[in-house]
Design goal:
The chain is mainly β. It folds into three domains: about 55 residues, no CATH class; about 45 residues, no CATH class; about 170 residues, Jelly Rolls (Sandwich). It is about 10% helix and about 40% strand. It has two helices and 18 strands. The strands form five sheets. It has a seven-stranded antiparallel beta sheet with strand order 8-18-10-14-15-16-12, with no helix packed on it. A hairpin with a 5-residue loop joins strand 15 and strand 16. It is elongated and about 115 Å long. About 20% of the residues are buried.
């Protein structure tokens, strides 16, 4: 360890001093330079861009340009044995690659993985592996209603998804005593099927209070029944819906569960099984109330991945 005040009070190293003193200062200055001014306290008489190795913390520091403070450059371990080839890996880094410790405990470079792969571990080493497999849920779209006539979703993609999952957050009708319902499209949402016999559905779990006779209108799949919005506890429709295999050449089927207050001020939890009666490739769907707009609420669509 050696330090030297390069701005000594009695003048520069080479100046009016006698030779013995000048020689001693030169030797001290060289030792300080060679040892990076090492010591457990910072050197006096600092200069901009001066190195200092703080021995009690093993930190190599450099003085800033304003000569007003120190910048930590590197923390060193006196027992470390980094090879030149390991240090050269920093020069070999490419976009997306990472440095890691290999089976020998040495620094190695792992090139970036292929698209949609994730970093995995076998408990010992890391590698790139396949992303989430089939059955993983992936966000597609979310729509907020604001006195909206309908909310439509066109993000169907059978190359990625087998089925779809929707959530309803307090979807509220602008008019009292309406049915929340679903219709489907086979042309990407340009047209929606709303014929009086295009769908079928049944339900369970509703309250025992009579709210009307048997359903005869199958122009949509009903997801709530005579929802009442006038009561203080209305709060719209909340729940979820699954659409299964809409791309298959089969009648598209759905299962939903909704929670809401009916026109009698009774909370209902309805479980609804629905079906589009004709076999077709469904690639869009639309939500609306049987009459009037959707005042507020949020509907979110997720895809269930097939690989």
């Amino acid at each position: 360890m050696a330090q030297f005040d390069f701005t000594t009070a009695d003048g520069p190293i080479v100046g009016t001093k006698g030779f013995p003193n000048t020689r001693a200062d030169i030797n001290s200055a060289l030792l300080a330079l060679i040892s990076n001014s090492s010591g457990d306290a910072e050197p006096t008489g600092t200069q901009a861009n001066q190195f200092w190795y703080e021995t009690d913390t093993n930190i190599l520091k450099i003085r800033n340009e304003a000569n007003s403070g120190w910048i930590n450059v590197l923390t060193l371990d006196e027992s470390m044995t980094v090879s030149a080839s390991e240090l050269n890996l920093l020069d070999d880094l490419t976009r997306g690659s990472i440095l890691y410790g290999n089976a020998s405990g040495a620094t190695a470079r792992l090139a970036k993985g292929a698209a949609d792969t994730v970093l995995t571990s076998d408990g010992t080493d890391i590698s790139w592996g396949a992303g989430a497999g089939g059955g993983a849920t992936e966000f597609i779209a979310s729509l907020d209603a604001s006195n909206s006539a309908t909310l439509s979703f066109t993000g169907f993609d059978d190359s990625k998804y087998d089925s779809y999952f929707f959530t309803f957050l307090h979807v509220t009708s602008a008019n009292d005593v309406q049915n929340f319902q679903l219709v489907t499209s086979t042309d990407g949402g340009s047209n929606y099927d709303t014929g009086s016999a295009d769908y079928n559905f049944n339900y369970s779990g509703r309250s025992t209070i009579a709210i009307g006779g048997a359903d005869t209108d199958f122009s949509a799949i009903k997801l709530s029944f005579l929802q009442g919005t006038a009561s203080a506890e209305a709060g719209g429709v909340s729940g979820h819906l699954y659409i299964y295999g809409p791309h298959l050449a089969q009648p598209t089927r759905t299962i939903a569960q909704t929670n809401y207050w009916n026109r009698n001020g009774v909370r209902e939890i309805a479980q609804i099984g629905g079906e589009r009666m004709s076999a077709a490739d469904v690639n869009a769907c639309r939500f609306n109330f049987s009459n009037g707009n959707i005042a507020s609420g949020t509907i979110t669509m997720y895809g269930i991945k097939n690989s």
